[in-house]
Every structure is written in structure tokens, then in C-alpha cells.
Design goal:
The protein is of the alpha/beta class. Helices cover 41% and strands 17% of the residues. Helix 3 links the parallel strand 5 and strand 6. Helix 3 crosses helix 9, helix 5 packs antiparallel against helix 8 and helix 6 crosses helix 7. The radius of gyration is 17 Å and the shape is globular.
Length: 276
């Protein structure tokens, strides 16, 4: 059993995965559930979900390589190397099978894990995930997300100290802004992420093989979309749901790109119903 005292259990733990440590938060008891954060984030933004599902699940939220407290991989950390990291982490933690939830850009990572390792993933959740129907749409999505490398290059430490600046930047991510503490933590994670890892992670949005992988998924799958998401187009979320054979799509209204932070009660309830 993993205790649920937030002062102890939500403190990051480290385990060696290959030659690098991976930092993760863990709490609860029951079937394992792995939560993968998106671009610019860390395991911190899963804290409400960790606590909410800890009564029924052994919930594990890693900091992906180059994000949060996990150092970057050596060389170019493309999506397939991140997939290998997640599979190896599960093995190091003794997980023979697990539920998997990927948010935003890490939805692609979760898709590849489920498609290439079907015996490992019992149930799959894709949160704020989107895809494209054809090559013109793929190119358009890649053009839209080229702003992410620009943001990475423009980061400066002073940015996190200016409340109005942080709130102004965060309006792209939220329909209703949460409290300032959550915004500051999220911005700290954004400033902290490794540049090479962030660029490799962002490039996964236009991966040509992702739609084929979606069609190969055999795990029961839930897609959770937000109606007011301006980062991952909601139309592409519906497309992804059509590609996955055994899936259903649930929408959260009046919510932006980070439903686990903006509407945690609604989000965690939807997640618990599916996993339960």
C-alpha cells in the first residue's frame, strides 16, 4: 500500500531507468494507473488526481525526461525513446499491467505505448488529445505549434516573478484561471524544462504514424476533451475517437486545456467512472 498523506507521498521519489533517474509521485492502493503530463508541465499538476483516485488505484505520475525533476535523456529524445522510458519505468516498478492516461502531447506517447505494448495497457485515457484527418491538416497543426519552440527560446527567469505576466500568458491554457499558486507552479515548470527535450516533445504533434497507431489500439479507451481548449483543437479530438476501435469521448464544458487543474472535481469523476 502507498500512503496518501500529501506531505509525504506526493513528495517526488526517484528510480533509475537505464542510466538516468526518473522522478515520480505515487500514492494509493489498487490497480496501477500511470499519469503522463504534457509539454511544459510536470507531475505536480496531477496532484488532485493522485489524491482523488488513491482510494481505488496505485497512482503513479512521473516527470518525463527533461521535465520537472527528471534530467533529460542523452541525445535527441524523440517520442519513441520516451515510450521506451515509460515501459522501462513500469518494469522497474514491478508493474505487469497498468492503466495509462496521457495528457496533451503525452497523449501521443500513451497511444504508442498502448499500440506497441497491448499486453501492458489495460485501459487507456487520452486527455486534451487531438489529431488530424489528412496531410493538409497535419501541416496546419504543425504550423500552429511552431510557436512552442519560440516560447522555449524566449524564456527568462524573471518572467515567473511577475503575476500579471504569468496570468496573461496562462489565459491561452484556461477558460477560467485557477488561483495564483497553481499558475506560478505551472510557470515554474515551464521555465525549468530542458530545451532539447521540449523541442523533441513538441515535434510529436505532427507525427505521421500517429493515426495508424490509433487504429491499432485494442485497450478500452476514453477520450476526455474540453470544449474551450485552444491548444489541442476539439475537432481533432473527435477525429481521434473515430480512429480508435473501442473508444468513447466525453466533453467537459467551460474548460480549457488543463481540466485536471481547472475543473478537477468533474475531471476526476469522469476518470474514476471509466477506470472503476
Amino acid at each position: 500500500m502507498h500512503l496518501t498523506d500529501p506531505d509525504t507521498e506526493l513528495t517526488p521519489i526517484q528510480v533509475m531507468v537505464g542510466r538516468k533517474p526518473i522522478s515520480y509521485r505515487r500514492c494509493g492502493d489498487g490497480p496501477p494507473l500511470i499519469l503522463l503530463h504534457g509539454w511544459g508541465g510536470s507531475s505536480r499538476y496531477w496532484r488532485s488526481t493522485l489524491n482523488a483516485l488513491s482510494a481505488t488505484h496505485d497512482v503513479i505520475a512521473p516527470d518525463l525526461p527533461g521535465f520537472g525533476d527528471s534530467p533529460p535523456l542523452d541525445g535527441y529524445a524523440n517520442i519513441h525513446r520516451v515510450v521506451d522510458t515509460i515501459v522501462t519505468l513500469a518494469d522497474r516498478l514491478g508493474l505487469e499491467q497498468f492503466d495509462l492516461n496521457g495528457h496533451s502531447f503525452s497523449g501521443s506517447t500513451a497511444v504508442y505505448v498502448a499500440a506497441h505494448y497491448p499486453d501492458l495497457v489495460r485501459r487507456l485515457v487520452l486527455t486534451s488529445f487531438s489529431t488530424f484527418r489528412n496531410e493538409p491538416e497535419r501541416r496546419f497543426v504543425m504550423q500552429v505549434h511552431k510557436v512552442l519552440p519560440l516560447w522555449t527560446a524566449l524564456r527568462r527567469p524573471w518572467m515567473g516573478d511577475h503575476r500579471l505576466f504569468v496570468r496573461a500568458v496562462s489565459t491561452r491554457l484556461f477558460y477560467h484561471l485557477p488561483d495564483d499558486q497553481l499558475l506560478r507552479e505551472g510557470f515554474t515548470d515551464f521555465l525549468k524544462m530542458d530545451k532539447r527535450s521540449s523541442l523533441a516533445n513538441a515535434s510529436s504533434v505532427g507525427d505521421r504514424e500517429i493515426n495508424l497507431a490509433l487504429r491499432q489500439i485494442r485497450s478500452p479507451t476514453l477520450l476526455i476533451g474540453s470544449r474551450q481548449d485552444t491548444i489541442m483543437p476539439p475537432g481533432g479530438t473527435s477525429v481521434a475517437a473515430k480512429f480508435i476501435p473501442n473508444s468513447r469521448l466525453v466533453w467537459i464544458d467551460h474548460c480549457g486545456h488543463l481540466p485536471m487543474l481547472e475543473r478537477p472535481d468533474v475531471y476526476n469523476s469522469i476518470l474514476a467512472d471509466f477506470l472503476g
